[in-house]
Amino acid sequence: MSADEIVDLYDEHGRVIGTAPRSRVRAENLRHGGTGVIVRDSAGRVFVHRRTVTKDVYPGLYDFCAGGVLQAGEHPDVAAAREVEEELGVSGVLLRRLGVAEYADAHTTYVAFLYDATYDGPLDLQPEEVESGEWLTLDELRARLSDPAWEFVPDSVALVGPHLDSLAGADGGSATEPGGRAARSH
Q1: Cα 57 to Cα 50, 52, 108, 111, 151, distances in angstroms
Q2: CA–CA separation, 63 vs 146, rounded Å?
Q3: For the chain, which domains are there?
């Protein structure tokens, strides 16, 4: 997504209230929509990656979610599928909705649409956004989250971190098929 790409703006109730260029959203820290997808393999390991130093928010930090900004008019399910494919090369998977939450700090303010996916295929890391990555067990991820040498993006930690325990063997939430169509609901 370029700095001039148009994104939806959200109010405090999670409703779209307008649009703005991504550059303005970042410069003024405007509330927008974003996605976060935690990718696990069938053994339950989580893919953890290091963001490139050229990222516009949290450069060079570690993350256990793939995701990004919703484009204007884009449905969150579609955006989540697009982002996980762009960043990690993950496609053709069911995305299970973990929920919707708010996140705000000095760098970004957004309505977060959160998902979980299981994927066992090859990864194709986008070099502009992902420097490197590895699969970690939940115990290994928890250990790194508590180790100050591993600096993680604060939004994933705040938004998805609380779901880590429930992900151990869980398959809850509603799911969407590739492309964002609802697949099933629990």
Answers
A1: 13, 10, 8, 16, 14
A2: 14
A3: 33-164 (3.90.79.10)
